[in-house]
Amino acid sequence: MQTLTEKQEVVLGLIRDYQMEHGASPTLRELREALGVSSDNSILKHLDALEEKGFISRRGDGSRSIELLENLKNRLDTPSESRLPLLGFIPAGGPVLSEEHVESWYTVGEDMVYRMKDSYLLRVVGDSMIDAGIHEGDLVVVCGSLVPKVRDIVVALVDKGNTVKRYMRDKEGIFYLKPENSQYDPIYPQHELQIQGVVTGLIRLYKR
Fold it and tell me: Which of 60, 66, 111, 204 lies in disulfide reach of 25, CB 3.0 to 4.6 Å?
């Protein structure tokens, strides 16, 4: 296979992530929105290039004509189990799998994880996301290499503090973090907003 340009890598990543989440391919409109472009032409050029280079295949001109990627077919058909680290702390540079940061390891099914090698667990503190079904003490599965989309639930570094919130953009185009609890206000960064991972799953442990 030939190498990809940076933009083609992004488009292929979006297709892969969407297929893992939905078991189907994104439409042109969904790819446009994810990339922030207004024309189908640029998306079609990237798809043509990806198909020519052997990274995707398409059937007809339907809205979801991109076929499932071969590596995803195998994962979707044969889920397995792997271990993910529970991180007690995420430094500003991103997740670090060192002894000082890993609290313990948990076995999870691959069907809960998009990219096993890039994923980890975090324990939720507080009740700011209860309306999204995320409670204090839950473990969220986080992928550090997913490209965040608006309305994704993310782990973010905002003004030197880590938090789990919904990633949003207001009418002026400013990105902010939205709690899923009416008792909390939206968080607009004063200096820095860095998305460190996208939440892809949740584990709830019940005490006996």
Answer: 66
